[in-house]
Amino acid sequence: MTSDTYFTARGGWIEVIAGVMFSGKSEELLRRVRRAAIAKRRVQVFKSHLDGRYAGVFKVSSHDGRTTEAIPVDTAAQIAERVHVDTDVVAIDEAQFLDERVVSLATDLAARGKRVIVAGTDTDFRGEPFGAMPELMAVAEIVDKLHAICVRCGHPASRNQRLIDGKPALYSSPTIMVGGAEAYEARCRACHQVPRRDEDQADLLI
Fold first, then answer.
1. Beta carbons within 10 angstroms of residue 158's beta carbon
2. What CATH code would you report for 13-147?
3. DSSP states along 161-206
């Protein structure tokens, strides 16, 4: 049963599309937005102002080149201010960059009868929970966790490998660093490397 058909009763709900980079999160969000528009639902799309890759800050884009118009925001409060009363579907891309109030915002919008579609990376480059994504996944009715393909071994990738000058970024690196294929790779748990943390864990096993 899919998000397009699951809820038919009165009321809103929350859908979360989570996963690593290059797993197709934005592409899936765009697919759901297009289907909602075909169904003549009034849709508004928002995205973090931090993500200006590919099509710029005024569009949500997927790695395959598909785009849709979007409103760039820095906070959940800015989304709340811009949602129209007659909007049926609120889509939010790159939600991991927004503040924790995005959880209460999504919950409130759903309580007001709106369908809320949220997409974001659920773990940071360290493989640890990223921003408000884990809590959004906990309060959502529907959660889809997507995987990419590990560039090292070809297995399902569940980690974002950050690279600095071609080498794995240290554990102490800043959590937020926007980038694409030049700075990140999709990797599985076994191929994922985080220097300093990996060394500390190896010491514990000795």
1. 21
2. 3.40.50.300
3. EEEETTEEPPTTS-S-----TTTEEEE-TTT---TTHHHHHHHHH-
Strand partners, 115: 13, 89
Query: Measured in Å, how far apart are the chain's first and last C-alpha atoms?
Result: 47
Instruction: Give percent of the chain with pLDDT exceeding 90.
Output: 74
Q: Where are the beta strands (DSSP E) in 62-190?
A: 67-69, 71-73, 89-93, 115-120, 142-146, 148-149, 156-157, 159-164, 167-168, 184-187
Question: Is the pLDDT reported for residue 12 higher than 60?
Answer: yes
Kindly state the tokens that stand for 14.
């929350």
Domain borders along the chain are: 13-147
- Quickly tell me which residue has 């709340």 as its tokens: 80
> What's the chain's average pLDDT?
88
> Model's pTM, two decimal places?
0.84
For residue 77 the two structure tokens come to 């409060």
Beta bridge partners, 69, equal 59
Up-side HSE of residue 5: CA atoms within 13 Å toward CB? 2
Active-site pick, 15, 27, 28, 94? 94
Torsion from C-alpha of 176, 79, 41, 112, nearest 10 degrees: 120
Q: Is 185 a catalytic residue?
A: no
DSSP tag of 133: H
Question: Looking only at Cα atoms, what is the longest distance across the chain?
Answer: 61
CA dist., res. 136 & res. 122, Å (int): 10
